[in-house]
Amino acid sequence: MFSPNCQLMSERITYRPLPTIVFMVFALLTVLTVKVQVSDINRTHQTSDINLIHQTSNTNLTHKDVFIGGKDKPEGYRLFRIPSIVAYEGIVMIFVEGRKNSRKDPGPSDAIDIVYKRSEDGGDTWSSLKVLADGHTSTSVPNARVAYQPTTVMDTKGGRQRIYLFYNRAHLSPFYRYSDDLGLTWSQEVGFLPALINKPPGVKKLTVNLGSGVQMEDGKLVIPTNTILSDDSNTHNRPSVVYSDDHGVTWKYGGHSEAGANEHQLTEVFIDGQSRLYSSSRQDARSVNTRRVNYGKFNHTTEQWDWTDSSNLLNERNTEIMATPVSAAIERYTRAAGCCESTNRLLFVIPQGKNASGQLGRYDLAVYVSTDEGRHFDKPRILHSGQASYSDIANVDGDRFMVAWERGNDGGESAQFVTLTTANRKFLDCYPLSECDLKP
């Protein structure tokens, strides 16, 4: 294509004295050399990122390691786990546990922080790691060496942009902090349990669960929690919720379902046009590869959700779901409404449960789609072949969605990195690779 600027540059170069031309050529070569060096550096970094992850020829599926753990602690931590993701208008944040010295789950002597990174370009580049809850040298909370299980929910109603981050501390009440500027600055810690205006009787322990909460269509902010009643053993977990119906001014206990499940994640569904909370839980019995599903209907008299019984097992209706015992992500993807969308869709992400050799474990991260509000899910679409564990989902725009998940390594660890995977509707609709994937 003809460019006036190129023609003017030719004319200016043509009539310059020879020394000037020599200088310009030297400068141009210098610039080209610098550009090549920068390009080489960038390409090396990109190749390193790519080599860490199983490759796919599907351009509608991309991966990027956001947190990198390892024995040499490249980012100051042995391991990163328990991701929670927020995506809003190009800003993406991932919150995780930073486990300082070991792979162990939280205990009173472990050193675990809540850390996060922030992206302002949709996940392409990331800030440095920042500590939000210091769990190993904390002076603000005495004797609290552990901060664990980050859980987020965002209030976007009425022009608000407030992000709530909830987490637990060892032997203490859960806490939360909030940000009104999309994660640039944060409030001080607030003790969560004392803030409940209807603290339930008989509760021996209440902890924040993991993944993400949900803002319902009526504005309620709901986060997943875990309850142990005074009559329960210390391992008899009950999926429960805490919510706010006044944009976080006050928080209320929203009830619990039956015991025997843990690590549940939430979304809102609509049954016969009526709002329900959908809870997907990991079974406590590790030998049982089933997911427990509960539907909660809000009771305006008790101001809590009434839950269905726990016999509603996902695998009895979806025999293709292996349901590795992990925390699995569930998220609203599309909502049938008006001119632009005719189908309700939920996304469910979980490791398939075995690798290509048939070995059972946390392998092969898959995404499933439901078009009947979580009653059934269709075929698995493999996001990554290899070690994979806990995950969380963010719906970006009804086309793209992001999964923050724990990725293992070839050495047998199921979680060393926290990786961001971005996919879109074409990936869902054209899996496996087919003719429609080749269309622009």
Ends: how far apart?
A: 24 Å
- Mean pLDDT over all positions: 78
> What global shape is seen?
globular
Helix proportion: 10-25%
How are strands sequenced across the largest beta sheet?
1-25-24-23-22-21-20
Helical run tally: 4
Poorly predicted ranges (pLDDT <50, ≥5 residues)?
1-57
* Alpha-beta classification: mainly beta
- Report the biggest beta sheet as strand number plus sense, adding barrel if it closes: 7 strands, antiparallel
Tally of extended strands? 25
Strand content: 35-45%
What is the element string, with H for helices and E for strands? HHEEEEEEEEEEEEEEEEEEEHEEEEEEH
Radius of gyration: 25 Å
Question: What keyword list fits this structure?
Answer:
mainly beta; single chain; 5-stranded mixed β-sheet; disordered N terminus; 7-stranded antiparallel β-sheet; 25 strands; 440 residues
Report on this structure:
There is one protein chain. This protein has 440 residues and is mostly beta strands. It has a domain of 112 residues. The protein has four helices and 25 strands. Strands 1-25-24-23-22-21-20 form a seven-stranded antiparallel sheet. A five-stranded mixed sheet has the order 9-8-7-6-11, with no helix packed on it. Strands 10, 12, 13, 14 and 15 form a five-stranded antiparallel sheet that branches. A hairpin with a 7-residue loop joins strand 14 and strand 15. The chain is globular. The two termini are 24 Å apart. The N terminus is likely disordered.
